[in-house]
Specification:
By secondary structure, this protein is α+β, with helices and mostly antiparallel strands. It has 14 helices and 17 strands. A hairpin with a 2-residue loop joins strand 4 and strand 5. The protein binds zinc ion.
Length: about 475
């Protein structure tokens, strides 16, 4: 009898190992069908000089309450009309909320849903005290050491101007797309896009425009971030995380500190933060992160490949491991970050209130209400109130088994034949969130090649883009217009 059970267990183990091994060793990279296409004849230096000039206009979004830098945006608009005369002459331009630009390039087949190429013309300010750390002044647009330097070269004048370069080129070639294109350039993305992207979407919705997909800033081409993957990876983000800022306020008896209660407001708020850090939201492996691992597993070392290829069996192990790492943690979890704490004014006075600000980045599949419920339960203190200061839900997850995605992927293969293309999750936010209802799919990708220190240049010091890479980005948009436009 025992012999028989032992035998059955052995058979089961062999079968299990066999399945694991089979799933591991049959999970191989897909055949690359990269067909490099002839490059469009675009003057690299002249294009770089146009982006350089665009950088010199200080189109800064200071804050939601601050006035728009009207004169700077007007100068930028005038420069666009001057530098791209064919775009100005042939495309229909609508100015939205005075400073956002919407171009329409009418397709020959109105039955096709439109494509929207997005970007934003505003930039973040230079953090006070860091001006001197720039190798080239931040609004100089200097072209030095093979790079264009300055605020906006990565985020996000790059995609606005690369799109304009590509359109100018295609119009001059006499190219006529079947599908209608819109170029949508918001002016307030850095403060949430309430007057730019949101109003552009209102305008398009009122006109009953049908949209196949949007392509916006988001993820880029990176190297050496996935274990064992030596090729650069182009991540097309299918979704972006949600954003939530909560303010926790603790109330307590005020008075003199000579006869204090067991816990002051400061003590209560500290305890609440400690509890939130000890009880983070649980990790979960969900789309589009699962799409990413499924795509990249074949390129990974056998041990990792075995775990990812056998998620049916090993998912808990994988989620646990990913939840420990810094970058991977943010991919599988709604993150918790206590960012501000405030309370008390004098060493011998009990404060009647103390408060803390906690910022969450919400994983697709979780909701703002879900996070609030978690916080309420974990803090578990009647003297602490919870208030939403700012919030938007995570985006929907767009499809990657879709014609639009394949067109973007194909274009990357043609222009950057050395890279692997993978779906991804954007950890920050973009204007795309306003386009969810309007477009069937929202993708977030610019073919910027990032090295290990480039991420810190976005919103940081020494923002710059290599002239050669800028040329690749323009070529990408040129080819995308053909692949998408038909
Ligand atoms: Zn941006």
């Amino acid at each position: 009898m025992f012999k028989k059970i032992g035998y059955l267990i052995l058979v089961a183990i062999v079968a299990l190992l066999g399945t694991v091994a089979f799933k591991t060793f049959t999970n191989n990279p897909e055949e690359k069908e990269n067909i490099a296409v002839p490059k469009a004849d675009i003057d690299k230096t002249a294009a770089a000089e146009r982006l350089s000039e665009a950088v010199t206009y200080k189109t800064i979004s200071w804050s939601i309450d601050a006035p728009v830098e009207a004169a700077e945006f007007e100068k930028l608009h005038a420069m666009i009309d001057r530098a791209y005369p064919t775009v100005a002459a042939k495309l229909e331009k609508t100015v939205i909320s005075d400073y956002s630009l919407l171009y329409k390039w009418e397709g020959s087949d109105p039955s096709l849903p439109a494509a929207i190429l997005m970007g934003h013309t505003d930039v973040v300010p230079i953090e006070e005290g860091t001006e001197q750390n720039w190798e080239q002044p931040p609004f100089s647009g200097k072209i030095v050491d093979g790079a264009i330097w300055g605020r906006g070269t990565l985020d996000d004048k790059v995609s606005v101007f690369a799109t304009l370069e590509a359109a100018e080129y295609q119009l001059k070639q006499g190219y006529q797309p079947k599908r209608t294109f819109y170029f949508a350039f918001g002016h307030d993305e850095e403060i949430g896009g309430p007057n730019g992207a949101a109003k552009i979407v209102e305008h398009l919705t009122a006109q009953n425009v049908k949209v196949a997909f949007t392509l916006d800033e988001g993820m880029v081409v990176v190297k050496d971030i996935m274990p064992g993957v030596t090729e650069p990876i182009a991540f097309i983000a299918l979704a972006e995380k949600g954003y939530l800022t909560l303010q926790l306020t603790a109330k307590a008896e005020g008075g003199h500190s000579s006869m204090p209660p067991q816990q002051t407001a400061v003590g209560k708020i500290s305890r609440a933060i400690a509890r939130l850090e000890e009880n983070r939201l649980p990790p979960a492996l969900r789309r589009p992160v699962t799409d990413m691992f499924d795509t990249l597993a074949p390129y990974m070392p056998t041990s990792l490949k075995a775990v990812i290829s056998n998620r049916w069996l090993l998912e808990p192990v994988l989620v646990d491991q990913l939840g420990k790492g810094g970058a991977t943690n943010a991919m599988v979890r709604t993150t918790t970050a206590a960012t501000i704490i405030d309370g008390g004014t004098k060493d011998n006075v009990l404060p009647s209130t103390a408060n803390a600000t906690v910022n969450f980045r919400i994983l697709p599949g979780t909701t703002i209400q879900g996070v609030i419920d978690h916080v309420t339960e974990v803090v578990n203190d009647q003297d602490i109130s919870i208030e939403v200061k700012q919030g938007n839900e995570p985006s929907k997850v767009s499809a990657h088994d879709h014609e639009s995605y394949h067109n973007i992927k194909k274009t990357i293969g043609e222009v950057l034949p050395d890279v692997i293309v993978s779906p991804g999750l954007m950890l920050a936010g973009s204007d795309s969130k306003h386009y969810e209802e309007l477009a069937e799919n929202n993708y977030r990708f610019i073919p910027m090649r990032f090295g290990p220190d480039d991420l810190g240049r976005i919103h940081g010091t020494n923002e710059r883009i290599m002239v050669d890479n800028y040329q690749e980005i323009i070529q990408f948009y040129v080819r995308l217009m053909e692949n998408v436009g038909g």
